[in-house]
Amino acid sequence: MKKRLEEILNLKISRRDTVTTAAKIGSAVALSNAITLPFSSTALAADVPAGKESAETVRHSACLVNCGSRCALKVIVKDDRIVRIEPEDAKDDAVFGEHQIRPCLRGRSSRWRVYSPDRIKHPMKRVGKRGEGKFKRITWDEATAFIAAELKRVTEKYGREAIYYSYQSGAYYHTQGTPAWKRLLNLTGGYLNYHNTYSTAQIASATPYTHGKYVGSHFSQIAHSDLVVFFGMNLSETRMSGGGQVEELRRALDASKARVIIIDPRYTDSVIAEHAEWLPIRPTTDAALVAGLAHTLISENLIDEALVNQYCVGYDRSTLPENAAPNASYKDYVMGTGEDGIEKTAQWAAQITGIPATRIQQLAREIAAARACYIGQGWGPQRHANGEQTVRAIQTLPALTGHFGLPDTNNGNWPYGTPYGVPLLPTGTNPVKASIPCYLWTDAIQSPEKMTATTMGVKGVDKLNVGIKLFFNQAGNALLNQHGDIN
């Protein structure tokens, strides 16, 4: 007994083990019937006569929230009511082998969402002024007739370009895909389309100027890397379930034992779960950090300039076109011989980023010395004004250090994981060619005359001919909490 007690007291528990154990405990608690829902349990009770209680049955579903994992759900039903939700049993899987895909707490809480008293179960029509929150219940026949009439009215008065279907992404494939609505609108004349997403507009737009295509390496490449550097990528928060990218990352790290460095303003679960070193950085200063890293790489001769010039354009003067401005190369920019005359030293970067100059210099040396460094960025760092410059700066880092185009490396973008698609209803072809950036729908209402292909990213046409007059929004909140211009 004494020996066993000493073993327990001397047991070393890693941070990852702590997080994993806590997750298992949390899952067990969530599945326990002892937990009451955050609303009246009477709302869940079924009217079952005494002595005629039915047995539990199993149904199969999936969690389609916008994390990309698509975890399968085993739904336990009794008397036509959901009793609990469990993970599917472990079975052979073409992707994970003998891996049981376990949904996270968000997926397992689907029962709460189904029976929430806040869920709208009937058509409601506004009867007061906009913003008053006054609605009345109407029938489905009234609702469909009203929508059809408005669709006809706006079509006849303004044309189909005035009808907009909005971007949403909360419950994936119910919202962003939403093939039923798009099919209806396409079959009846089309609608004003959107491009980009709220999450990836800057990175998707900037990447073609660097790489030609927005794609990174698969997470599985990390299985053979020795160093992983992530800018603002927190999979344990954003891809947290057992069916997607976070699981692929952790399996790869288990194989490689690679060192992980996460550069982020926030301390997140990813830092803990991946045994990562956290480098806190001031928001929106990632490009300055990369410039400081590049200065160390150049000044300490840690760059294979012949290799960079072989595959890249613009590192130094030798690969720039003849008509380029003097001292317009990236090297000139970093070393202070460029237009702004500022030398981007580690000390300069430290004042902007908040990361000590010595750590910036060390990081540059570590990346240069790595056998295969996997560099990637999340979508958070680019979600600000001029965020495309953050994107391109991070993409420059693997190009400078030779960690690109090779096994076990990445090009600085968000990595890609195994896709988990679901069958969709065919939507047909949209006859309307005009498309606007999804974030600029407010401009398409207030000042459509300003929206052109050269000023505000309109695609398919040179300019908008009419503003948005009818707005379709299903199961999403881009009208309010996802948007930044709501005043």
Write up this protein.
By secondary structure, this protein is an alpha/beta fold. The chain has helices at 2-9, 15-31, 105-108, 110-114, 140-158, 179-187, 201-210, 235-238, 245-256, 269-273, 286-299, 305-311, 330-335, 346-353, 357-369, 387-401, 441-446, and strands at 57-62, 72-78, 81-87, 124-126, 135-137, 163-165, 193-195, 227-231, 259-263, 277-279, 373-377, 435-437, 470-472. Strands 10-9-8-11 form a 4-stranded parallel sheet, covered by helices on one side. The chain has a 3-stranded antiparallel sheet with strand order 1-2-3, with no helix packed on it. Strand 4 and strand 5 form a beta hairpin. Residues 4-13, 18-48 and 92-96 have low confidence and may be disordered.
Properties at a glance:
single chain; alpha/beta; four-stranded parallel beta sheet; three-stranded antiparallel beta sheet; 13 strands; 33% helix
Q: Could you list the spans in which at least 5 consecutive residues all have pLDDT below 50?
A: 4-13, 18-48, 92-96
Helix content bin = 25-40%
The computed structural class is alpha/beta
Strand content: 5-15%
Radius of gyration, CA atoms, in whole angstroms: 27 Å
- Mean pLDDT score, rounded? 85
**Succession of helices and strands:** HHEEEHHEEHEHEHEHHEHEHHHHHEHEHE
Number of strands: 13
Biggest β-sheet, characterized? Answer: 4 strands, parallel
**If strands are numbered along the chain, what order do they take across the biggest sheet?**
10-9-8-11
N- to C-terminal distance? 67 Å
Question: How many helical elements?
Answer: 17
Shape descriptor reads globular
